[in-house]
């Protein structure tokens, strides 16, 4: 079943247009990768979906309903979670308080709570009383994902989740995101880390200058070094 459809969206910041007719879709339980260099429109695509930067043209359908123009908090209540690139933990709140403030029941079976997110991110339980501003970058990334899970989303948008993290932390984070996928959570990963995305995704879209230039499977991307060189290498 198609969960999310992005159809021909054009999005701009003021007079500066960033997206030029983006089309992507996500099936229920699928992990989609958005690949591309800095500034090609990955983050703007995410922001268009969650309503932070609504598109000027095109539509975005969630379970068949057009959500363009809805407030970001209403989009979140529909089941679309967002993990921003800059994490945005509440620095003066403890880990537990960061989680508790995001708690939202949506009447689903086996909903996320503290114990479930602590089982996925054991380090957070260890630092449950530590303020968010005193966590390491990796711990803040775990907390941001865990906080999003407390809203019990049906899909999670992760914007550059591995950026700025040490390799060992990235490896652990990849395992944790794979666990979310195994539980049936739909995912969109916007990343520059090619192997991180290819290892997790079912399909990938490659963006260049605000347009989708390629859609295919991770194996197809790996088998096409010219594609990687053209659109993904610096």
What does this 3D model show about the protein?
- With 234 residues, the chain is an alpha/beta fold.
- The protein has a domain at 1-79 and 187-234: Rossmann fold, CATH 3.40.50.300.
- 35% of the residues lie in helices and 27% in strands.
- It contains 10 helices and 10 strands.
- The chain has helices at residues 42-49, 72-78, 95-100, 114-120, 122-126, 137-149, 167-182, 194-200, 218-222, 225-231; strands at residues 2-13, 16-27, 31-35, 57-62, 65-66, 80-83, 155-159, 186-191, 203-208, 211-216.
- The strands form 2 sheets. Strands 6-7-8-3-9-10 form a 6-stranded mixed sheet, with helices on both faces. Strands 2-1-4-5 form a 4-stranded antiparallel sheet, with helices on one face.
- The longest helix is centred in the last third of the chain and has 16 residues, at 167-182.
- The protein is globular.
- The model has no long low-confidence stretch (mean pLDDT 94).
